[in-house]
Amino acid sequence: MSHTPQPLGAPVVRREGRDKVTGTARYAAEHTRPGCLYGWIVPATVPSGRVTAVRTADALALPGVHTVLTHDNAPRLNEPDDPILAVLQDDRVPHRGWPVALVLAEGLEAARAGAAAVQVEYDTAGHDVVLTEDHPGLRIPDEANGGFPGLRERGNATAAFDAAPVRIDATYTLGGLHNHPMEPHASTAVWAGGRLTVHDSSQGSTTVCDTLAQVLGIDRDAVTVVSEHVGGGFGSKGTPRPQVVLAAMAARHTGLPVQLALPRRYMAAIVGHRAPTVQRVRLGADRDGVLSCVSHEVVTQTSRIKEFVEQAAVPARVMYASPHSRTEHRVVALDVPSPSWMRAPGEASGMYALESAMDELANVLGMDPVELRLRNEPKTEPDSGRPFSSRNLAACLTEGARRFGWSGRDPQPASREEGPWLLGTGVASATYPVLVSKCAASLHAAPDGSYRVGVNATDIGTGARTVLAQIAASVLDTPPDNVRIDIGSSDLPAAPLAGGSSGTASWGSAVHKAATALTARLAGHSGPVPPDGITVTADTGEETERESPYARHAFGAHFAEVAVDSLTGEVRVRRLLGVYAAGRILNSRTARSQFIGGMVMGLGMALTEGSTMDPVFGDFTERDLASYHVPSCADVPDIQAHWIDEDDPHLNPMGSKGIGEIGIVGTAAAIGNAVRHATGARLRGLPLTPDKLLPYLP
């Protein structure tokens, strides 16, 4: 055990690392109880219509098959707040892949065979699954995801654009993108003595617990949801997904434990995705590169059963100074699976378009792209007029340029060759809002001098246990090894989900408050700590209810060097470098991992990841990792993440900003801009696959 307190920010090794590499860390599908039944979903095979019959006799005749649940015999649920959870409640088919039956069997193979033997008949209807920028059903929603207004206007952007001496008017397209966490969505549910216990792969078991109690019509105290170890989520596990409701209702119906793990190929239809977008960006500037107007119009889709509008135009409201601005979302409901959160929703897709347009403007002006961004730094947040709590984008750009060797860049496109390879470099900015939610935590001092933190945080691979121990230890003036962390159970003090880059700030603020209260309590306590110890609790409801007078955002700058094979169109990223301004970095080791992980996802977004909707069958064509290509280690030969020291007193007791998502935000644009510099060809649709590049190569 360490005997010296380590400063907050030290590269403390994550405490669950050994458990993970030795296999002792147990995930949701590894809590199998005796007598457990295994579930397998029967997905709808039509994109729209109604189920007219579900024939289960052949399935029930198979060895090991126990039960088949359909909308005719499944337990009734209270209407959930999230419509995607109303599974097996009626005969509707809102999209292909919607669960229309659940087979329960004594073994996984028997469940899969039973599902294949279920025969479903449908009354089909016409379907509409293709997003177009002129779809007649498009409308402006009141709100986009996150509660942002669907439309914001300052001044007269149209008139300012028409009057601008230098203009960019470009449209950028992104297909659907899919969350592919290493651990697919899974739940194991057990009823015993009127209590429900669920092990769920979730980014926040507090919400899962509340939801299950509501839909099942039972007291919340009768539900325990455990998400002790979670193998990634990237947003797709941010709220309860259908498998947890199906597992709980099936366990209740059969009286036996039930385990349900989604096959990866089912995830595209069931757990959400980043919606495709068509984004038109118009920039007007003078000949010195000073922006007079920014217009960002987004067309996207949602499903018939739930409205989710990707907030892709929101970053343009805060990034650059301009007296005139119009940022608009339009959405159409289609017969498609419900889109949802995917790492940096809104920012990842929206900043690709905005930062690509900024690069196009720099090219037209003959101006260095870094300099163009520096010339348009706002003094206050353009959308709200509030002062920034801190804004060090300029420092990120200049430090990144120095580290990357940007000053030696020849601005002329297609000017560097290395055999058949065309070489180029690109840059893009990044931003992500500072978010925080109410959280509660307990802290216990034991007679032996050790401490124990209780908070229902979720570690989705970020190192939450380690950082929370560091936060508590820094207040208690004790080594982090002297602090035990209990997380991942809804029986612990309630906490928000691990999402929106807000987890550490939310949980850490409550832990910091509890540690401060315990320190004061111990200072006023005479004599030894009693045998049962001393416990304090704290919550941050009062702090989080206060609206900050400051605009709070993290910022970053991404630099990329690419090589494009002039014979095959293959793009290789040779170098990626990110520099971030994200408040106080609480653990340099885990922070670097988060930044780099986001950048790798951005590389996938730029070059390999893409999903197409089949207009005839109404489903995503790329539904597994054989067809939906995520980057491998060989795709990332040199990737570096750095940060600047940022002291921001207007955030939280730790002075930290979220870091889990900003790494993806500017990466795709930086790579796209580098490809343009290498080849001279501006492609405005991702991913930049060889077939798209070949027609433009010599």
Kindly list the characteristics that best describe this protein:
698 residues, alpha+beta, seven-stranded mixed sheet, six-stranded mixed sheet, 17 helices, globular
Walkthrough of the structure:
With 698 residues, this protein is α+β, with helices and mostly antiparallel strands. The strands form five sheets. It has a seven-stranded mixed sheet, sandwiched between helices. Helix 5 crosses helix 6, helix 11 runs parallel beside helix 12 (503-523) and helix 14 (588-607) packs across helix 16 (667-679). The termini are far apart.
Ordered list of secondary-structure elements with their pairings:
Elements: H1 17-22, E1 37-43, E2 49-55, H2 57-60, E3 65-69, E4 92-93, E5 99-105, H3 108-117, E6 119-124, E7 151-154, H4 157-163, E8 166-174, E9 186-192, E10 195-200, H5 205-216, E11 223-226, H6 242-254, E12 258-261, H7 264-270, E13 277-285, E14 291-303, E15 324-334, H8 347-365, H9 369-375, H10 393-404, E16 416-418, E17 421-433, E18 440-445, E19 451-454, H11 464-476, E20 483-486, H12 503-523, E21 534-539, H13 541-545, E22 553-565, E23 571-581, H14 588-607, E24 639-643, H15 662-665, H16 667-679, E25 685-686, H17 690-693
Parallel strand pairs: 1-12, 8-25, 10-11, 14-15, 19-20, 23-24
Antiparallel strand pairs: 1-5, 2-4, 2-6, 3-5, 7-15, 8-13, 9-10, 9-12, 13-14, 16-17, 17-22, 18-19, 18-21, 22-23
Helix pairs in contact: 5-6, 8-16, 11-12, 14-16
